Amino acid sequence: METVRHVLASFHELALKGAHRGKFERVLRRNISRALAGLPVADISIPARVTIRFTDDLPWREVHHRLDTVFGLNALLPVTYVGRSWEELEAHCRAHAAELARGATFAVRCRRSHKLFPLTSEEIQRRLGAVLRECTGMRVDLSTPEVTVRVIVQSDGVYLVHGRWPGPGGLPVGTSGRVLVLLSGGIDSPVAAYLALKRGVTAHFIHFHSQPYVGDASVRKAEEIVALLNRYQGPSRLAVVPFGQCQQEIVTRCPEALRVVLYRRMMLRVAARVARRWRCQALVTGESLNQVASQTLPNLAAIDRIARLPVLRPLISMDKQEIIDLAERIGTYELSILPHADCCSFLQPRHPTTGVSAAACAAAESALDVERWAREVQRQAQVTYLQPLPWPSPRSQPLRAWA
Ligand code: ATP
Ligand code: MG
User: Which residues pair with 7 in a beta bridge?
Assistant: First the structure.
């Protein structure tokens, strides 16, 4: 497995932000530092691309794993720093010719953002091509080369590129405001949280449980999911809210078919209160259109009617399989499928309605004092402050360095 000491990372959307670029870069740099905490980072600078330098060679797989949690980074390039001049680039390539000669034909591709460098990209390509032809015996083939030698010239130095991995994309967490995620412990809401974080928000979380009617498995699960998601953003808060009594009240006093929509409206009322206290500007749920009875357009409209904040639904148009694929990729799937008693499967109606109006919900809720219940449920919230899940410590066996 290859090791790296330098990594370059590109960021498209940031570059478009004009006047805000300074702030975006500051936040991005902070997020990268957090993701790399515990690794021997020498410095992080942003001359053109993000440039990360370590004091030691590190396994690329581990560095990549961590940088894959930094939204805003589009492409990740493990590189070797060869110096600041053409002479140093030439000397490096001559010294490592054997490692560069991995095929019969080759091409050199150069990108130069440092416009004061004495050679143009074409000149570097031509000169380096001649050097490599001479010392490796490879033939030049510009259309379908077996080996592509990539060179990047930035104001801080000249780099040889060893590969290009896709980054996580999106915007740096901390540049788009703050949201409160309704986190159930199912498959969907952690993915919704991930997608919200990807657009640059920071997130706090709220989880409703049905204790004492069911055990605390869903709470443990919510904590683990939040810790995993916190790798993308740093520490956050989780409000754990006992919802069983309120559900019992809805079951006793309201029509059975409306239950799930009424539970959800009540959750949103409580969540809006917590959001206000924590200065969150929107709520996020894992709802997807028509996935289940409570997620039809009329039901979503009836739920939204009482929302005092925008309700973001990042999964709205995703198929279940797409959601599962993403959950597997980000590692929440394994946690989500652990068994737990969901507070909404508890006291489920046999025939939930797929088309309730907000007026019908309001009429049903007139049997409850909804504001008092929302206040009461919020009062019982227990708040924990959760750290990101720690990274496994880097392996220390000697590894092969890239040329
Ligand atoms: P999930 O997989 O996220 O549980 P789901 O497909 O099971 O979603 P529902 O059970 O209808 O769908 O829940 C829809 C959304 O409502 C969830 O994605 C979540 O945002 C919110 N929600 C549901 N139950 C809870 C809960 N116990 N605590 C917090 N939020 C919840
Ligand atoms: Mg659910």
Answer: 52, 78
